[in-house]
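User: You have something folded?
Assistant:
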Amino acid sequence: MLKGLMEKFVKPSVMKDATTPVKLLQVDYANSVNHIDVTKMRIGFVTERALEEHMKQNSSEKLSLEFRQNCKLFLLKMVSKLFEKAPLKYPLVRGLSVLDPRVLLKSKETSVRKLDTVLRLLVESGRIEEQSWLSVSISTFSLVAIAIERYSAICNPLKSRAWQTRSHAYRVIAVTWALSLVIMVPYPVFSQLKDFHKLDQTKGHMCRLNWPSVEVEQTW
């Protein structure tokens, strides 16, 4: 929609390079040098017909130019408002495009870079903690254990009462923690502190896994 509105008053030579959402946001639509002549501006088929009918009755070229100029100002205001609200101007939204399967399959390097950007921004904003690797694993296995026990309690209510005891719950909790610790061992072993530049150009630090080899990563 944004590109369609801009094509109505921005020169085609300027719009031809706006092949991606990021490049579209970089178009200087407010610069009058990039605007097409108002007499050639696309104002819509119905509007053109109505303007022609009006010109037959009132042959005032000045009135037609004023109308087209007002249409251009309206489009400029609308595009400006859309740019202010455009979510693609935020790096987090652009990074979330990696959730598109087509992006994941297209380039591994691009996918990793975008995921890294998303995680970095979430850590900077305090939405997630870098040290939450163990809690994530424990939460996942706990939800799996709860789902299995609920399934058994609903489908086999009489049998499940025999083994769903307090001691059984203690054993499940112990196994959940032990399994999580074993699976997440690479995080404290292979994690390294790396520097990066924040959006405000200040220097920050982040923990990232640095695998000794591709084989070790694939094995994990």
Notes: The chain has 13 helices and two strands. Residues 61-85 form the longest helix (25 residues). The mean pLDDT is 80. The longest strand covers residues 191-197.
